[in-house]
Amino acid sequence: MSAKSDVSPRGRIWFDALTGAAANLSSLRSVCVADAPLGGQAARFIAVVPDAQNRFPRARGGEVGLDEGWALAHHVRATIAEDKDGARRPLIAIVDVSSQAYGRREELLGIHLACAAAADAYASARLAGHAVIALLVGKAMSGAFLAHGYQANRIIALDSREVMVQAMGKQAAARVTRSSVEEMEKLGERIAPVAYDIRSYASLGLLHKLIEGIDADSPSRADVGRVREELVGAITDARAGAPDLASRLSSAAARKMRAASIEVRRRLAEQWRAAEQGGSPEQGRSAEQARSAEQARSAERRDVRS
Q: Are 118 and 195 members of one domain?
């Protein structure tokens, strides 16, 4: 369970700032949902926030727990159903989530199903034509980010020291790798995917925009206005592109930092297409052929030297 000092109010701060006096449509205190105007259109804003009275103690610090996962899935799918025959509202996922809720009860009751339901709902909304935008205002950690925000068409983030993205917290990562937190931080300075800060994450090409010069803890009216403009820009860009997540591999940063990942995807797609078209094993295995040829040449060179 998160310590009280680690509980962040940023999700609620930005939800209130962007929605104003709009009514909260959620009956769950840890999930905020509201419809509010954004760039001359209606948008649905969703945030997971701390609730000190949450019936699941492991989810009192703003984590995505059982109730939160199912609530996210419910409200996103309700949006899809309500907009089926009309204009599809953008979905704005305001992200400040420290983790999914770890606990014995959560595991027994299917935390994996709750988080998967939320992720599936967001993906379904994106594929149905809703522009899904994730706004990172705090932590975007572990399975919580996968459930709430990662399926967005576009991800934008505030440039702040407290905005960070990673698969697990520093302490947990240190225990798993049998390292110290300090050693993990030094490793992150050299290897971007291991780092926690948002600028390292941006270098991987996964962000649509990193917004600088914003007071994340106490935003002014001008700060909120700038973020609104960036949200509108991200919505426009998402609607102009494909509903998949291919844009995360097309940026200059992605082509530089994720070249190996892009090449693996290309080769897998090549082999998949060949298999679908009924090609021969040789035609569908160009990558394996090249690798085998290189291995054979290396063996021949070793034989010559010996």
A: yes
What single DSSP character describes residue 24?
Answer: P
Residue 248 in any domain: the answer is: no
Maximal C-alpha separation, the chain: 80
Query: How confident is the model over 60-67, as a mean pLDDT?
Result: 96
169 and 301 belong to one structural domain: no
The residue that leads in pLDDT, 169 or 290, is 169
Q: What is the mean pLDDT of the chain?
A: 89
Query: Rounded to whole angstroms, how far apart are CA atoms 282 and 214?
Result: 55
Over residues 103-137, the pLDDT tens digits come to 999 999 999 999 999 999 999 999 999 999 999 99
Q: Once rounded to an integer, what is the mean pLDDT over residues 60-68?
A: 97
Per the structure, the count of domains in the chain is 2
- Residue indicated by tokens 């060949």: 274
Distances (CA, A) of 49 to 46, 66, 166, 283: 10, 14, 19, 52
C-alpha dist (Å) from residue 282 to 203, 267, 275 = 37, 14, 10
Residue 138: closest CA among 59, 195, 76, 63: 63
Q: State which residues form the domain around 270.
A: 260-305
DSSP 230: H
pLDDT in tens, 219-259: 999 999 999 999 999 999 999 999 999 889 888 889 988 89
60 domain residue, yes or no: yes
Contacts of 274 (CB under 8 A, 6+ apart): 283, 284, 285
